[in-house]
Amino acid sequence: GNGLPVVRHNVYDCIELCCDQLPSGLLLFKMIFFCRKATMTLGGKRWYVRSRESLCLETRLTRHQYDRALSGLKVNGFVETRRLPLSKVSIFGNLTAFRVTPNTIKELKKVRNRRGPVRSKRA
Fold first, then answer.
1. Structure confidence by residue, pLDDT tens digits, 52-65
2. Residue 85 has what pLDDT?
3. How crowded is residue 49: how many other Cβ atoms within 10 Å of its Cβ?
4. In what order do the strands lie in the sheet with 40-42?
């Protein structure tokens, strides 16, 4: 999809990366999932289009929590957003496109390496 390298991560890694901010971690986890399926290319980069309402339903966040979480993700450079060009509005509607930055994947790898390998408990 987005050309993001695959890194074995889970929602807890995303929450830790977001300084234990639960809404930001949940939103980042979902955005990484969706960006791997991105099909639209704008400016040479792959983007995924989804409405705020849809992401709020997926993550069970309120609109206020979503807005604060997205703002934090953008400030930290984990996510980029942009408005759709007018030529695409007729296809997708007046929605916002988003993409997870490659820097996010690097930072997730650091989180995983700090914690070490996950060991399963066997009886």
1. 888 999 999 999 99
2. 75
3. 19
4. 40-42, 45-49, 96-100, 79-83
Tokens of 42: 């704008």
Residue 2 and residue 99 in contact, taking contact as beta carbons nearer than 8 Å: yes
- Asked if 63 and 56 count as a contact pair (C-beta separation under 8 A), the reply is yes
Nearest to 31 by CA among 47, 43, 42: 47
Condensed to tens digits (0 to 9), the pLDDT of residues 39-52 reads 788 888 888 888 88
In terms of residues, how long is the chain?
123
The torsion angles phi and psi of 51, rounded to 5 degrees, stand at: -80, 160
**Tens of pLDDT, residues 11-28:** 888 999 999 999 999 999
With tokens 């957003």, the residue in question is: 81
